[in-house]
Structures are given as structure tokens and as C-alpha cells.
Design a protein that fits this description.
The chain is an alpha+beta fold. Helices cover 24% and strands 23% of the residues. The strands form six sheets. A five-stranded antiparallel sheet has the order 1-2-3-7-4, covered by helices on one side. A hairpin with a 2-residue loop joins β14 and β15. α1 packs across α7 (337-360) and α5 (230-239) runs antiparallel to α7. The mean pLDDT is 93.
Length: 361
């Protein structure tokens, strides 16, 4: 299987399967001398970790990361990166492969079961194997390393819609994100989502979601025209996350409903000689290059495909059948996609920072 590596100068290769002994990543291109210890990574893995509420899978994984290479104590006794590949490992400790025995020869609708089998002639049916969202734990670990490269840049994500119910943006409060199990910036909407997901879970069904990720402090000038656009790489990064079916930058599809004068982010001269933008419909990127405004990306996650409702399907022998997916699954995979989206934003920005530094000094 190829295409397991992401990035150009800051490159990440992930490895491992959902029900294998471990998963992890190798990070190549991280500059030397950057402070990095396990705690700097674990804090983000803890935000993604399953089993923390009744609204996520009850698989109990500590997601304890180990740094296997790429760091060393400097003269002051501080652990820093050495400039060599950083290898990270997360052991799987709570697999229940027997839960998937009944679907060993059936293709789950909405999953990658059939496409993996069509491409490789074999598939790991235990939780989806390599196609499982379990792989994203490695991305979050790599994203933590990327954040250490991005001095002065803040990256925050929030869930802005579950099913048909969206947050009230007039009540947006970043401080509220860590006060509820949904990464929701609106306390009232979070309470409503709890009822929505309880109903979906009891019905054996699931709901989709929309996640918004905002990076502040990104200077103007990152990204490259034509084939190295910052928004191009962000779209690719977010689209690579499991179950994502759409990506927007800035106003995204809503921009199509605006007039030219409404969509234009007007500018005035600032006291420091740099322009001050009066709006940010472009999401902080113009012509593929950052403007200095907040970089805003949004992505849509489909409803969890593993549900208890019987669905029509076929098996690997081409016979019609029905399937009910047992096991432990998120009623909304979009919840734990928030820290994953933050990680992918960090990986793209770290890569573009190094690319910009290489070309422009």
C-alpha cells in the first residue's frame, strides 16, 4: 500500500491498523533544537481519546504515546529535537476483534470494505484495519510536533453543526469548547446536541457534523501560486480525514450566493503600514497565499456508517444479504474529528512555514 506520507519538507508517514498491536508515525524534516517531550504530545491525544463520554465509542484506549527516536537532551538537560526522524508509537490495548467476525465476508454500506477489497483483493475486517479512524491518533501525535514548530500561531477547532442543528454564531465562545463533550462553542446548542445524539444512539443510527478550524497568527506570504497553494493543501489535508465529504475555506460554498462587492475583503491602511482587512470572506488566503488574517477551514463529516439498523448489502461472493454492524462505534464521528482537523491544519502550516523559509529566508 502506497500513499501513506503527507507533506513536502515537514513529512509525516503513518502506520498501523485499528486492531494491530500498535500504530504510529514517523516525522521527517522537523528542525533541530525544538523542545519536545511526551507531555507536549499527550495533551492533544487526550482530547481525541475514545471512551470519554457516551457520545463517542466506548473503546477504552489510553492512547499513551512513546517517542522512539529524534530527541535528545541538550546541554541544559532539556529534551529537544535532533533534526533526525521522529518516531512515535501508540499501543492498542482494547481491541475486540471478535465483534467483527460476522462481517468478515460482508461489505458494510458506507464503509471502505468493498473498495479496499476491489483494490487489494484482501481487507482487514477488524474495525476497518487501515481505513479505520483509529489511524488518526497518529495524525494528532504528529500535529502536536508540528505545533511546536509554529511559534506564535494558535490553532483551535470547534464543532459547528451536528445533523441539521448548527451553533448560534452570535453566542460563540471559544472558552466553552472545553466545557462540553462536543467541542461546541455554544453552550445552548451543546445541550440540544446531547438530546439529538441520545435519540440517534437509541435508534441505532448516527448523525453527521461540520467542524471549523481556525489558525491565528499566520503571517502574510505563506503558500505558493498555482500548484503549491495554501488552501489547496489545506483542502487535501482535511479531505484525507476519515468520513470527510466536503471542505470549505473561508465562506466556501456560501460565497457563491454573494455579490462581488459583498465578497470582497476591503482593506484600509493600518498604523504599521500593513493593510487592515474589514472582513474575512476569503478565510485568510488569496491566490493560494496567506493574507495575515485568521486561516479558516471547515469540513463536513458524514454520519457514522457502522450502525445497528439492518442495511442491504452483498458479500465477497457476490450474494445479496443484510448486515447489522455490532461493536463500539461513535454515534457522530465528527466529535473526535475536531482535534484531528486541528492536527491537519498544524501539519500543513508547519510544512508551508519551512517551504517559505527555504525560498524566502
Amino acid at each position: 500500500m502506497s500513499h501513506n506520507t503527507f507533506g513536502h519538507l515537514f513529512r509525516v508517514t503513518t502506520w498501523g491498523e485499528s486492531h494491530g498491536p500498535a500504530l504510529g508515525c514517523v516525522i521527517d524534516g522537523c528542525p533541530s533544537g525544538i523542545p519536545l517531550k511526551v507531555e507536549d504530545i499527550q495533551i492533544y491525544l487526550d482530547r481525541r481519546r475514545p471512551g470519554q463520554s457516551r457520545y463517542t465509542t466506548q473503546r477504552r484506549e489510553p492512547d499513551a504515546v512513546k517517542i522512539l527516536s529524534g530527541v535528545f537532551d541538550d546541554d541544559a538537560g532539556q529534551q529537544v529535537t535532533t533534526g533526525t526522524p521522529i518516531s512515535l508509537m501508540i499501543e492498542n490495548t482494547d481491541q475486540r476483534s471478535k465483534d467483527y467476525g460476522e462481517i468478515a465476508e460482508k461489505f458494510r454500506p458506507g464503509h471502505a470494505d468493498y473498495t479496499y477489497f476491489a483494490k487489494y483483493g484482501i481487507r482487514d475486517y477488524r474495525g476497518g484495519g487501515r481505513s479505520s479512524a483509529r489511524e488518526t491518533a497518529a495524525r494528532v501525535a504528529a500535529g502536536a510536533v508540528a505545533r511546536s514548530v509554529l511559534d506564535g500561531i494558535s490553532i483551535r477547532g470547534a464543532l459547528v453543526q451536528i445533523g441539521s442543528r448548527a451553533v448560534d454564531r452570535n453566542s460563540w465562545n471559544w472558552d466553552e469548547v472545553d466545557n462540553n463533550p462536543f467541542f461546541c462553542p455554544d453552550a445552548t446548542t451543546a445541550a440540544q446536541w446531547a438530546d439529538d445524539l441520545d435519540a440517534a444512539r437509541k435508534a441505532g443510527s448516527s448523525l453527521g457534523a461540520i467542524i471549523e478550524v481556525v489558525a491565528e497568527g499566520v503571517p502574510a506570504g505563506w503558500g505558493a501560486p498555482i500548484y503549491g497553494k495554501l488552501d489547496q493543501d489545506l483542502a487535501s489535508a482535511m479531505m484525507s480525514i476519515n468520513a470527510v465529504k466536503g471542505v470549505e475555506i473561508g465562506d466556501g460554498f456560501a460565497a457563491a450566493a454573494l455579490t462581488g462587492e459583498a465578497n470582497a475583503d476591503e482593506m484600509r491602511a493600518g498604523n504599521d503600514g500593513k493593510p487592515v482587512f474589514l472582513s474575512n470572506h476569503a478565510g485568510g488566503i488569496l491566490g493560494g497565499i496567506s493574507t495575515g488574517q485568521p486561516v479558516v477551514a471547515r469540513f463536513a463529516v458524514k454520519p457514522t456508517s457502522s450502525i445497528l439498523q439492518p442495511r442491504r448489502t452483498v458479500d465477497k461472493h457476490g450474494q445479496n444479504t443484510e448486515i447489522i454492524t455490532k461493536g463500539r462505534h461513535d454515534p457522530c464521528v465528527g466529535i473526535r474529528a475536531v482535534p484531528v482537523g486541528e492536527a491537519m491544519m498544524a501539519l500543513v502550516l508547519a510544512d508551508h512555514f519551512l517551504r517559505h523559509r527555504a525560498q524566502n529566508g
